């Protein structure tokens, strides 16, 4: 079963590299993928378990898409020269889009654990040149924009010991509401929720939940206390997962 599944992925990849869109769609349907008439795939490396492309969906040229599952609803698209790699799924709502030269990655299972997804709601756009870490899920609502270039979204981070090599990891998914706009070169850390109708200014670092509508910008540099020991914190729980290679704590309110 596993061998047949891997063979289908290899055949899918080869066909995407050599065939133009019209015969490619037919061949992919014969392989069991759900590719509607009018969906288009450019000359890209597409190595996935399952493709589901609705009418008008498209994947541009010269991208590497090596993930578990890709779902593009009506009119959704990947642009050109994107790099998506790791054990996660990608689900784009109607007319949502990932532009050009974006990088979305997740570490292999054992470093990561459980399912994770990058989800974009209707008409949400990730423009160009952004970096998204999908160690945990990243969910965008409808009508959002990750604007400009150079923004980073991280769903994991480390706390290091004051002495010696010890460290532990803290994971947390990131969730955007509807109508959220994020300016260029912003940094958003794990476990953060940004509510509906919020604007994040250029170059802003977001490390806490934002619930009140407004325009948020970074403040001046300041000193904060080091994190408390995880065993004393009520907002985190240690992750127990098979073959996990490091110590990981997960924020209770983070998404899957």
The second-level CATH architecture is 3 Solenoid
Report the average pLDDT across residues: 92
Q: Which strand order do you get reading across the main beta sheet? A: 2-5-8-11-14-17-22-25-27
- The tally of domains stands at 1
Q: How far apart, in Å, are the first and last alpha carbons?
A: 28 Å
Strand content: 25-35%
Helix-and-strand structural type: mainly beta
Largest sheet: 9 strands, parallel
Radius of gyration over all CA atoms, rounded: 19 Å
- Name of the CATH homologous superfamily: Hexapeptide repeat proteins
Number of helices: 2
* Helical coverage, percent range: 10-25%
Short description:
The protein is mainly beta. It has helices at 2-18, 21-30, and strands at residues 34-35, 40-41, 45-46, 50-53, 58-59, 64-66, 69-72, 77-78, 83-85, 89-92, 97-100, 103-105, 117-120, 125-128, 131-133, 138-139, 145-146, 152-153, 156-160, 167-171, 174-176, 181-182, 187-188, 193-194, 199-200, 205-206, 215-216, 236-238, 248-251. It has a single domain (2-251), classed as Hexapeptide repeat proteins (UDP N-Acetylglucosamine Acyltransferase, domain 1, 3 Solenoid), CATH 2.160.10.
State the main characteristics:
nine-stranded parallel β-sheet, UDP N-Acetylglucosamine Acyltransferase, domain 1, 29 strands, 256 residues, eight-stranded parallel β-sheet, mainly beta
């Amino acid at each position: 079963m596993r061998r047949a599944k891997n063979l289908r992925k290899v055949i899918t990849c080869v066909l995407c590299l050599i065939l133009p869109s019209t015969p490619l769609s037919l061949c992919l349907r014969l392989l069991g993928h759900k590719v509607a008439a009018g969906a288009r795939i450019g000359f890209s490396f597409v190595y996935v378990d399952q493709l589901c492309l609705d009418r008008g969906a498209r994947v541009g040229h010269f991208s590497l898409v090596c993930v578990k599952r890709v779902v593009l609803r009506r009119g959704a698209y990947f642009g050109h020269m994107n790099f998506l790699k790791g054990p996660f799924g990608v689900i784009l709502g109607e007319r949502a889009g990932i532009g050009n030269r974006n990088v979305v990655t997740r570490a292999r299972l054992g470093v990561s654990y459980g399912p994770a997804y990058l989800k974009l709601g209707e008409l949400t756009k990730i423009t160009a040149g952004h970096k998204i870490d999908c160690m945990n899920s990243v969910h965008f609502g409808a009508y959002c924009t990750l604007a400009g270039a150079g923004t980073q979204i991280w769903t994991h981070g480390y706390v290091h010991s004051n002495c010696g090599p010890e460290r532990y990891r803290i994971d947390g998914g990131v969730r955007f509401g509807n109508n959220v706009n994020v300016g260029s070169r912003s940094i958003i850390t794990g476990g953060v929720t940004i509510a509906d109708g919020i604007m994040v200014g250029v170059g802003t670092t977001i490390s806490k939940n934002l619930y009140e509508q407004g325009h948020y910008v970074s403040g001046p540099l300041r000193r904060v206390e080091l994190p408390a020991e995880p065993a004393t914190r009520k907002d985190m729980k240690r992750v127990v997962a098979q073959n996990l290679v490091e110590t990981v704590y997960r924020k209770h309110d983070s998404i899957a």
